[in-house]
Each structure stands twice: as structure tokens, then as C-alpha cells.
Design goal:
Blueprint lengths: L9 H15 L17 H5 L16 E3 L4 E8 L4 E5 L2 E4 H4 L4 H6 L4 E6 L7 E3 L4 E9 L8 H6 L3 H4 L2 E8 L2 E8 L7 E3 L5 H5 L4 E4 L8 E2 L4 E5 L4 E6 L4 E3 L8 E2 L4 E5 L6
Antiparallel strand pairs: 1-17, 2-5, 2-16, 3-4, 5-14, 6-13, 7-8, 7-11, 7-12, 8-9, 9-14, 10-13, 15-17
Length: 269
């Protein structure tokens, strides 16, 4: 699929793109380039940019913006380092972060939100708050589907799939954004590191960033990465820092830039 998504033969890539648009009813009127034939390959179409203003970002330094188009999978408190995957099924924060005890301790009894991107969704990922990058961790794994059925039937799904963990300093304290791979996803990218799988060489790898020497600062709403096929984003916050909007429930459709909640405290609990 990685190879096929990058085939530039016009007849092949145009067939794939048109078939995908019909199958998933993709709204191309929102894309910067609405003509399917104009994309050099399927992956360029899949990671297409949207027109300016198509996804306005909620204003205010104290509001939490949605980082992606998709739907809420689960959200709420992290109880004793366990996150809710589906009704009656939890998974380990420690395992999600690849066994990093120091990072897991930051989010003990914190808050999480899991957002699922379907194939038809916009697949670029944006910042929910202003942030300065501290760490990134690539964790190899499986590529199970991450749809609702899989989340309800595969124990520890998000701890078993390939994923990229990013850690930012934000006005709400430490924030982790985890990009979880899925079926057919053979690479994820960030704006500061292109192909994470290639860069890591198939093993767990850590990157540390010194904000005094090599600051990577991204504003709320700015692009931070993209999936080269569909998947899931998990956001983690420290205890007491974020209050998610009560209207958000599993299954709620969300759009990049909309309000998800607000900063409740700028001081660590």
C-alpha cells in the first residue's frame, strides 16, 4: 500500500483517487486543489490541504482546539494510569507511552481525549494549544484497524499499534499528542521530521529537543503532522489542567479548530 499510494502513473493514481472519492463521499470542494487528476499520487490526495478558512480555529489562549477532523472515540479522566478504550475495556498509560515511566508520571490522574479519523476525513494534524516541543518517541508495533469495532474487540489496541508520541510544553502544562498508526498506515510524519519509521529504523527511538538551542515552537492551529492513511490521535494532559466540554461524548463528530474545552489551571496540581 505504501508503494501503491505513491505510484505516479496517471491511469493508476487517477483510478485510485476517483474510486476513493466515490466510496467515501469525500467533499473535494473544501480542498485547495479540488481536481482529483491534479494530484501527483494517491498519498498527495489523501494528505491534501484545505482552503484557507475551511477550518477556523477557536480564538483565545485559554481554549482547547480540536487537532483533527474525526469523531470522539473516548475521553475523560485517566484513572490510576488507565485510559478507557471502549465500554468495559481499559488500557495502560505506561504501555501507551512505550514504557517511559517519567512521561507516564506526568499524566497520572490526568485527562485524555481519543479522536478517530475515518478514511474520508482531512488527515493533517494541528496544534490544540500553543506548544514548544520537548520530546518525540517512535514506538514500532502492529497495524490493526482502529475503527469502533476494533476498539471494542482488541484489548490494548492503542498500546499494540505503531505510534509516535510527542510531548509539548503548553499554557496548560505538559501535553502529549500520540499519533496511532492503523491498517495500511506505513508512515506518519511531523513537520520537523518527515518519515518517522525510516528515521527510527524500525526500533523504539527517542528525540530530545533543547528549547534554548533548537526550539520547535508551534502556534495553536498550526500543522504539526499528518497520517499517510487514516488513524487516531490521543491527547494527554496533567491532572486538573483541562476541562473538556460536557457536550462531547463518544461518537461526537468533531472538526479541526473547533472548541474541545478550556484551560482550567495553569498551575500543576
Amino acid at each position: 500500500m505504501h508503494w501503491l499510494a505513491r505510484v505516479k502513473v496517471a491511469s493508476v493514481k487517477n483510478f485510485l483517487i476517483r474510486m476513493f472519492i466515490r466510496r467515501y463521499k469525500v467533499d473535494m470542494s473544501l480542498a485547495v486543489e479540488p481536481q482529483a487528476e491534479s494530484y501527483p499520487d494517491f498519498n498527495a490526495f489523501f494528505t491534501r490541504a484545505l482552503k484557507p478558512g475551511a477550518r477556523p480555529v477557536v480564538p483565545g489562549d485559554d481554549t482547547l482546539a480540536c487537532p483533527v477532523d474525526g469523531a470522539v472515540s473516548q475521553l475523560g479522566p485517566i484513572w490510576h494510569r488507565q485510559l478507557l478504550q471502549a465500554k468495559g475495556m481499559d488500557y495502560s498509560l505506561y504501555s501507551l507511552l512505550g514504557g517511559d515511566e517519567g512521561m507516564a508520571a506526568l499524566f497520572h490522574n490526568g485527562t485524555f481525549a481519543t479522536l478517530y479519523l475515518s478514511p474520508r476525513d482531512y488527515h493533517r494534524i494541528h496544534m490544540p494549544l500553543n506548544g514548544v516541543l520537548r520530546r518525540m518517541r517512535y514506538i514500532p508495533g502492529r497495524l490493526y484497524s482502529v475503527n469502533t469495532y476494533s476498539a471494542e474487540h482488541i484489548p490494548g489496541l492503542f498500546t499494540r499499534n505503531e505510534r509516535v508520541v510527542t510531548l509539548f510544553d503548553t499554557p496548560a502544562g505538559p501535553m502529549a499528542m500520540i499519533l496511532v498508526g492503523a491498517i495500511f498506515v506505513s508512515s506518519m510524519e511531523t513537520v520537523w521530521e518527515q518519515d518517522l519509521r525510516a528515521a527510527a529504523g524500525g526500533a523504539i527511538r527517542d528525540w530530545h529537543y533543547d528549547p534554548d538551542r533548537e526550539p520547535i515552537a508551534l502556534a495553536k492551529g498550526e500543522e504539526m503532522g499528518r497520517f499517510n492513511m487514516g488513524s487516531t490521535v490521543i491527547m494527554l494532559f496533567e491532572q486538573g489542567r483541562i476541562e473538556l466540554d460536557e457536550a462531547l461524548q463518544p461518537g461526537t463528530v468533531v472538526r479541526m479548530g473547533q472548541r474541545l474545552g478550556h484551560i482550567a489551571s495553569t498551575d500543576a496540581s
